[in-house]
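Reopening this one. Same input as before:
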Amino acid sequence: MNKLNLTDDILLSVEKPARYIGNEVNMIEKDIANIDIRFALCFPDVYEIGMSHLGLQILYDFLNKREDTYVERVFSPWVDLDKILREKNHPLFALESQDPLKGFDFLGFTLQYEMSYTNILNILDLSHIPLYSKDRSEEDPIICAGGPCAYNPEPLAEFIDFFYIGEGEEALNDLLDQYKAHKNNGGTKAEFLEKLLDIEGVYVPKFYDVSYHEDGTIKAFIPNHQNAKSKIKKRIVIDVNELPFPQKPIVPYIQTVHDRVVLELFRGCIRGCRFCQAGMIYRPLREKNVEDLKNQAKTLIRNTGHDEISLVSLSSNDYSELKDLTYYLIDELDEEGVNISLPSLRIDEFSLDVMSKVQDVRKSSLTFAPEAGTQRLRDVINKGITEEDIIKGSSDAFSGGWNRVKLYFMLGLPTETLEDVEGIATLGQDIVEEYYKMPKEKRTQRLQIIISTSFFVPKPFTPFQWFPQDDYETFMEKQSFLNKKINKKNIKYNSHDAKTSRLEGVIARGDRKVSKVLYEAFKQGCKFDSWSEHFEYSKWEKAFELADVDMNFYTTRARDKDEIFPWDFIDTEVSKDFLYREYTRALESKVTPNCRLGCANCGLKELGGGVCYEG
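Same output, byte for byte:
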């Protein structure tokens, strides 16, 4: 075991010390004396959340294949250790070497959700690294970030030295090659940021200036360096079958959120749900070879000892070889006692057959995500699912022995009326009645229907980026209205907090001015804001007041067609014209077919691969 950074006294005084000691099964160890580049890869949340993230495992494995680079992991210390580190002025450290982060070449954050942003500032502070990019010196690491939230980097632009837009496997090797050569030639980190301007997909905020109109909207976004590109193109791997996969993912000592191995079926999505940012920015769909996946599955189980494998993607049913792969894995892994899970599966005959095989003993709950209560609103959001689909799926599930159904919806979707809200309660009741259509002798268990609602947050690079978000009072009125309409006899209703959704709304479509709010929120003590027990809205209200930023400017304001958005300088290859066409089709409740049924000319065909060229 490597030396530990924390003493036994400290480890024994905190909850779950295994979060901080590293040395897990399959952890990569390297001799630092033979390393040119030290890279700390950070998931800005607690260990159990970060270790469940597939992207972290992929990048950890991919970059550690380089002999000259050592990638180590960092997570947000839980509040108990956070307190101790501050009291003792003890710097935060990486798990593998247990060395303080300040001595690394790079500290890279993955940006998965907006409510983790104060954790990023907290990690910098705990590492004794200045928060603002302009205040850092040659003695500090280069701070970088990527992931889905990096597609609007502006709220963090003052804190991050550079952002990487796209899939890491495509260009990070090139970036590290350039850094190594630059470092060996005696170049400074400040000079390296200039060199990054030559790499497609890299955005260095200090080389861009933003000016604003009197009404607060952006007037111009202009490069201030001759080599800075006016557009930053996302990087994408066209042939995903050429990518290595982590053959030996790390096996934690403690239970994590997803305690299993993960098989990635494909990247991208064909569906075109108009609220979904991932469905737009990860386009086009690119499938992995089924024979490779079969071999990978067996390798993952053999190298980890896990008893569950999860087949993941944005919409698993759209994998063209899903039946072949699933039935093969059921046959191969059944004797080893390995369970197969298929999240994000649409409920149809095949799905129920698969689930009846893998969940034969403990018929767990079935999950539908209609998102909206009426067909009109499901057409507005281009969900591609009908009420008949949901009712038939429920009926088939009840006949197959399930008695527990979960339904997920969003409140506050564009054009939503109280009739749409009431439709959520009606759909739930229709499913209840479907259950009671079965003969009494088949209704052997008590029916459980669970309806959960969240609040809609408009996201960049979606057709709904022009729409206003409901204000807090409207959100709560709709939630209260729905609560009164739901028949509680057979239906349980869970609802989310509207305040965090409002803050997400600000940060998701925020500009550089929002960085002041993040800083003030951090100074007020905000961290772990996605954890309800640590979320304190009053501190955020104070932060907005101190930063002199109006929350409604970013949330409840409708945008003009030609407004310059803070993220417009990033090119995802999905054109803004396509997104606006989808915006107008939403207003007309017109459905757009998925990519396999017809091309909607989103702009991605120029990439020359993926689902655009199937068949």
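So the earlier flakiness isn't reproducible anymore. For the record, Residues 255 and 440 are 41 Å apart (CA to CA).
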